[in-house]
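Schema walkthrough. Field components (list of strings):
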Amino acid sequence: MNATAAINRIALLFLAASLLAAPIVLPLLGASFWVSVVAEILIWSLLAASVNLLLGYVGLLSFGQALYFGVGMYGAALSVLHWGAGFWGGLMLGALAAMLMAAVAGSVAVRLTWHYFAIITVVFSLILYFAAMSAKPLTGGDDGISFAPPSIFKFDAVNLSLGDQTVQFYAILAVVAAAYGAMWLIVNSPLGLRFIAVRENDRRAALIGINVYLTRYIAFVIAGTLAGLSGALFAFFGRYASASYMFYHVSGEAVVWAIVGGAGSLLGPLFGTGILIVLRELVSAVWENYLFAVGAITILVVMFAPRGLAGAWSDLIERSARRPAAVAERGPREAPQTAAKDGARSS
Amino acid sequence: MSSPIDLTASGAPIKSGQRPINGEIAAIEDHVSGVVLALAINGLVWGLIIALIALGLSIIFGLLDIINVAHGDFFMLGTVGGLVLTMLTGSFWIAVLFVPVIGFAIGIVLERLVIRPTIRQASLTIVTTFGLSMMLQEGVRATYGAQPRRMEAPIGGTIPLFGIDYDIYRIFAAVFAALCLAAFFLFLNRTKLGTWIRAVRHDPETATSLGIPVARICAITFGLGTAMALLGGAIAAPITTVEFRTGVDILPFCFMAVIIGGLGNLQGTVAAALLLAVFEGLVTSVTDPTIARILSLGLMSAVLLVRPHGLFSGATR
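Field assembly_structure (string):
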């Protein structure tokens, strides 16, 4: 497995290098528009990662992560508007608000599993969505509220100069990288092992003394915080917050990004989000009804790579590292776990 | 945000804004109880249509274990199909006849192309049906257009009902949906194909060993579920807005009916759909539709927590 680990490490270094170089190299190629696309991918990937933390690591399918995204968004926007918070303060408050929301909703939601869990997360997000839509004075409803970017983003939202875009990109990259780093630590801690034990078999996990409810609850709160962080970042990125981002369709997109990327691998959601957003940008430039093509390609990806891009990737490098036996022996049941290990190691 | 389950939409002209101040008490009470009844009936009408759609979702869910996120868009396809076919042929009744047939054909084809390759993994079917949902919405937007339209009721006129004028078409739609529901249960319980469908749902392996063509039954079931969503859409077309996004609003409602009724419990699905819609209709009479929606969602979470296996789990299992 050393060859695999080495390839993964090189790939990760390459990824980090290209992300660091993106705001410098892309404008030189005359593609400065893509810098903001990459920034958007980084932000949304955290929402997909929050779905992945629940689905891929504790085996709970949440269809309501957009709720925490929206709470994070409003947490950031309202604290900047009303309390004069700065970028970092707004970010913290957004994530904190989402964490509290998840702590409340999670205490009830994680009592249920699988289909029932999926439904109750949708129900919660719909309740808050309708509430936010009708609380127009506070949230601005569908139109949302916009705010002037605080101190470290001193520029006008309409007329972004190149240097400003670079600062913004690196701020986003730093936050997203820190979030992935924190996730890596969690997944590789004893808590992460408990997550996987609960995912694989919750009865056995309970029998060896793991508090299944508490484990799921912790995962739920962490996932909510992640989604909130993503929402707060997106609020700063777009300089506004809108209730429409709390709709369940946004949650559904995050689920798709996570599964296309490969549930159970740490960086999978980043690639799933990346490929689908890049695709959207490419096709929308040439075809008005680009979502048709995006839908078709989404279907094709899961048909031909049922373990997502991360699964396809680890198959590919293991085959090229001449370890066919490991691939052949792996049952479908075991697959996500292996992908998880690979993903974890690769970071 | 226009919701297709907007219980106060155009159908029943309720004069809630004009509360008589000095009128006779009896007249006020009459008026109020009339409004409440009308909204309850509105709820019942929508409940029956939703029950038809949710039942389609329920058989797909129960038999194939597919979380069909595209089901709402099949409903949308039905409303658009109803409108377009009515314009083409000049008769709403021809549209209502053909839309479910088209739906069945679409369902069979999609099952073969999209569903079957990922059928054994529920989480993957979410992604494939989500992709399908995007394609359906975008396909309709590209061909039919993004403009929301309203369709004229094929049966015009109103009848006085509890002191207000009520659309005749809505009554017809409710009766028609109820007949379709009855016909479906008769089909499921009294015909050979229906028995096969139940057998496959109960135990696919034994069904295979008894010579039942399981793969074909799965395809037929998916086709039937799709046909029911399209039929529901065609019936609902004259009482809702017809546009490419209506499915998005109706989908959570259908899933809730399925879950609250109990997974795999078809009668439960129907009962839950009726219960939810009538509850929402009644609450709408005292507060605005958004708060009514929030309350019914709250009720739903309470039911989920108290009886996670459905309201009627005790009675059927």
